[in-house]
Amino acid sequence: MPRALVWFRRDLRVADNTALHHACQFADEGVVGVFVASEKQWKQHHDAAVKVDFWLQNLAQLSAKLEKLNIPLLLVNSDTYADCPAAILKVMQTHDCHALFANREYETYEVRRDRAVRESLHEQGLTTQLFHDRVIVPPRDIQTKDGRFYSVYTPYRRVWDSVMRDYLEVRETPGKQKTTGIKPSKVPSNWDEFEQVDESISDLWPAGEKEAERRLLDFLSEVEGYGTGRDVPSIQGTSRLSPYLAAGVISPRQCVTAMLAAHPAAIEKDSGVGVWISELTWRDFYTHVLWGFPRVSQDRPFKEKTDQVDWRLDQQDLLAWKSGMTGYPIVDAGMRQLNQTGWMHNRLRMVTAMFLTKNLLVDWREGEKYFMEKLVDGDLAANNGGWQWSASTGTDSVPYFRIFNPFSQSKRFDPDGLFIKQYCPELKSVPATQLHDVNKFAKAASGLDYPSYIVDYKEGRERALAAFKAIR
Ligand SMILES: Cc1cc2nc3c(=O)[nH]c(=O)nc-3n(C[C@H](O)[C@H](O)[C@H](O)COP(=O)(O)OP(=O)(O)OC[C@H]3O[C@@H](n4cnc5c(N)ncnc54)[C@H](O)[C@@H]3O)c2cc1C
Q: Domain tally for the chain?
């Protein structure tokens, strides 16, 4: 009689969980859950303390929910992915499980890990079933006419739009399973390898499926204003669901089906609903790119020629950028938001990433790494996609000569300087008219406890243009 093991990874939920759903259908002798903590590997991947703490808080909630379904959640340690096959095999043998169920991960190391686990189980006569679950349309299901992966968003989006509804089936939440007599593991209060996260940050991201659903519900009633509000960092114009989507506390299918049910007539591309769904399409697209072009997850640019750019590795500039001390108010406010909350508004992710890679000409990989070390929603596909877009090295990236002017950006998206002043309180006395002008601002800020420009705007821009023009 079969018993199933469900390996939870970045799918920390009970609702609409494809692997869990299939495991419960398969097993008539009970279902066991497992989470493998690979702290050393997470460190190597630059996972943020705030993110792995968020996983931990969600694991506690998941364990309690699973217990109500008679599914014990076990926590096992495996320092690195190399130890995973032995760790999983041991759980399966100890608890008499016949088949492993898990939702696919698409990053190179995770794919290799899963292959090794599958092979080791196969040798013992045990089966593995992997499911597409993290995105709406699985990466391989959208291909160009000649069978390649898309490298440009717009044609990808066209196909995505035409097939998306075929992938929206939300899985039923399983009912009570047969009891196993296995005790769930105690979920620890913190990880050994990671520093404790300040409550002022973790309180911003309460764990649990209920919280994710609440955020989604709240957002459903505000989505009309998303088309314009999403670019204004001083208001809550976006869903703030990214940590929940990244950890799989809610699925993208749940998001889109709820949105379409609430606003059945509003799917046009320029409506708030349409624009929001297109952001989830970007999420799918970057996973498609990661799967189709694995080099992007191996520190290499999508546009291989751009590796010839003579990137700088100026530690002083990098440090000033990281700590929000560049002298450019909107850049500093964005970086301070990241450092203080574990999250940054999308507009500012673009502004700060472009500032680092163009105005400072610092290697995009340094910025990508720092974001991963700080973001509660850090996701290799979306982060790499965003960085390579900003650095003009990626699939669909901004042309190298279209460099954001930080002052025009703040004038447009933070006209009253509300966001800037929230994160740079030393600029409170500077009138908005002087915040958005490179010359007036330098004068207005000269007596304040705020750094002067670490790079001259024009010189930095010219240096970046020259570096890209030098590529052969
Ligand atoms: C340099 C850079 C780095 C980024 N790093 C990450 C990252 O590590 N993790 C991450 O989830 N997003 C990343 N993004 C994308 C985007 O900034 C965040 O998803 C968004 O700010 C999250 O806020 P929200 O949940 O309120 O989004 P909403 O605007 O409400 O969007 C809904 C969801 O769509 C997805 N999404 C939105 N925009 C994008 C996008 N441009 N690319 C891919 N998915 C998107 C997210 O899952 C988001 O939660 C990055 C963008 C840039 C420019």
A: 3
